[in-house]
Amino acid sequence: MNTIPTIFNExxxxxxxxxxxxxxxxxxxxxxxxxxxxxxxxxxxxxxxxAELEKAGFDRVISLEGPQDRYDLEELAERFPFVRFILLKxxxxxxxxINLGVTExxxxxxxxxWNDLRFLLGGDAAKIAxxxxxxxxKLLKAPPxxxxxxxxxxxxxxQNSRLEILSTIASPALYRSKLPWKLRxxxxxxxxxxxxxxxxxxxxxxxxxxxxxxxxxxxxxxxxTIQNPYWQFMxxxxxxxxxxxxxxxxxxxxxSCDGEAVPKDTTADSGYxxxxxxxxxxxxxxxxxxxPLRLFPGYxxxxxxDLSRAWREFRENRQWVEANSRRFQRDAHILTGxxxxxxxxxxxxxx
Length: 351
Description:
This protein is an alpha/beta fold. It has 11 helices and 13 strands. It has helices at residues 46-56, 73-79, 94-103, 125-132, 136-141, 213-219, 229-242, 270-280, 296-303, 307-323, 332-342; strands at 15-19, 33-38, 60-65, 83-88, 109-114, 117-121, 153-159, 169-175, 186-192, 209-212, 247-257, 283-285, 288-290. The chain has a 9-stranded mixed β-sheet, sandwiched between helices. Strands 8-9 form a two-stranded antiparallel sheet. Helix 1 (46-56) links the parallel strand 2 and strand 3. Helix 7 packs parallel to helix 8 (270-280) and helix 9 crosses helix 10 (307-323). The two termini are 37 Å apart.
């Protein structure tokens, strides 16, 4: 059965590594923040980017390199000994690449970036680490074993080359079909530009954000069986909120994207079905969650699959929810209600 593994990244993809044998010593003290760099392709100035990350004080950079040949890796590895290049043998989804990058670092925090992003404001790693760490007073009030970091993930403000702020904030809107044989709930994510500090968002846009490594691993990371990046990120974010964590935006970090925003593929494919069963279908009652059997006829009708395959998918994901039932702290309906209470009114039309 394909599941989020009990042990994080229990099965690793095939890859080789180069460089990264020394920590960035631009400052005498470690900042505790590693940059995980994803590459969209294109001929971006890599030396300039690595120099900027070195100056910003990141302890290390984990650069995920696609299966294509890189003629300049040996030169770059020698010039930037704090950069570890991960050479992938196969094409991996963004979430799988991030999971792999996390296994290559022990930093308490990691910042997921793309190679077409540049810092405009707040890119100092030491200040990021200081700001995201709980104060001594709050640490004393935290339960035993709690992470010393504020939250699971903090996402920056991103603008395009025309200085327009991207609509990176996603809010949930659930609607129920009036037809009894349809799926119990459907999700529509409304997207807005960030308007206030610490505004909640359903998922990290393009995966970009500063993550608490301990929380990330405890959550299980990204689900590598979902290949559509939109549903992969949405699954991660929803799971985080349903299990009691949160993802919020900060206006203290602003980035510029050199490329254009790629339209998201929101097709209700197999990734959506997995997302639906693990995030929208569960019902939370008496401190546990379960998927009611009565939802199967609607699921069968909606998928259009044959009976045996639809039942296998439904049963396997129902078993996964049962195995993690006590990790749920709410269901999608409760989450949406809490979201509506907290989120500020916005004057921006959803995109």
